[in-house]
Amino acid sequence: MPTNGRTNLAFALGGIGGSNAHGAGFLHAARMEGKTPTHISCTSGMIYWTWRWLEGHDLEQEFRQSADDARSAIWRRLPPSTLRSWLAYWFGGEGVFRPAVPEYFTRLFSKWYLTPPERWGDLWFPAQLLVPTRPRETYHRIAEAFNASDIAIFFNSFSPRLGTEHLHMNDAARDSYHTVEQERRNRRPDDAHAQAMRDSGDLPSVKPERITADAVRDALWLGLYGFQRDGKPQEHIDGAYARQFILSELSAAHVIYIPRPQRYRWVGELPESFVELQDLETELWFNGAYAQQLARIELVNRLLRNEQLKAPLEKLGFHEIELVPIEIPVQRGFFNYFIEDTSVFYHAVEQSTLALRD
């Protein structure tokens, strides 16, 4: 507990398709338990559910309306297979995206004679497999709600061409971020060589940005949407591909709740199909950035537990951070991420309620 008697709470919410039900269930439980954070980070689909929570909507009722349990029940009855995964892909995501079938055939028949033979494979197997269907008004409303909030809110997008993560923040988050970054620069300034490497893209870089409607749209742009938007190059994509959980910027908090829509370990039998392998690889790369941030926080925690280091570190403003991961208890398939399921929501409510009461 900090010396001023106040414990700052943070919620770190990571999105991953239909498993956003896990994060939405956590937010519903947090409201029921009267827990209000000082900081929230959210990525991918959890940006949408954070907005709905922030505006005071009944997430249980809204989720039940958006989830297609009849369809989910069909997937569950089918044996695990590549066929089940592809069916989930084609029929999932209602209200969020649709399969890019018209775009596929338009591209194929209008460009084949302009395309060199060695590039015909690009027409048959394009990057664009889905088309986003959310109305533009939704992006504007999310940006307005986030910017109006007193809670420090962070989300991200990523520029593959630059190798840069764009960290989008409201005013409350910017104040917190710049304070922490200034302290970091004062203690550990980059030398000229390191800064030049960041500028050239040879080292990871994070660029602070404001929250706008376009930023929200970028942060919800899946790789399967392709890299063209309205006839122009789409330079930014969903930031969860680079960092599914934004933890480092929540260091002002004393407790960070982390409802994770996938487990750190693989549940069940190891992959036997290509699609299951994609699921494993997706979880491995998402876990990479997560583990790295946890290690940094835990390092500071361990140093603070050393009696000789505790006082000087606290004088510099460091404090212990309690990490509370709440992991989804089941394994969901690669394309099953596109299917919302109320059973996942209610399991998350139950798990989160217990964690929030501890």
CATH fold topology = Cytosolic phospholipase A2 catalytic domain
Portion in helices: 40-55%
Main sheet summary: 8 strands, mixed
- Termini distance? 14 Å
- Mean pLDDT rating: 87
Q: Any overview of this molecule?
A:
The protein has 358 residues and is an alpha/beta fold. The protein has one domain (9-96, 133-357): Cytosolic phospholipase A2 catalytic domain. It contains 14 helices and twelve strands. Strands 1, 2, 5, 6, 7, 10, 11 and 12 form an eight-stranded mixed sheet that branches. Strands 3-4 form a two-stranded antiparallel sheet. This is PNPLA domain-containing protein. Residues 178-208 are annotated as: Disordered. Residues 178-193 have a biased composition (Basic and acidic residues).
State the main characteristics.
single chain; 358 residues; alpha/beta; Cytosolic phospholipase A2 catalytic domain; eight-stranded mixed sheet; two-stranded antiparallel sheet; 14 helices; 12 strands; 47% helix; globular; PNPLA domain-containing protein
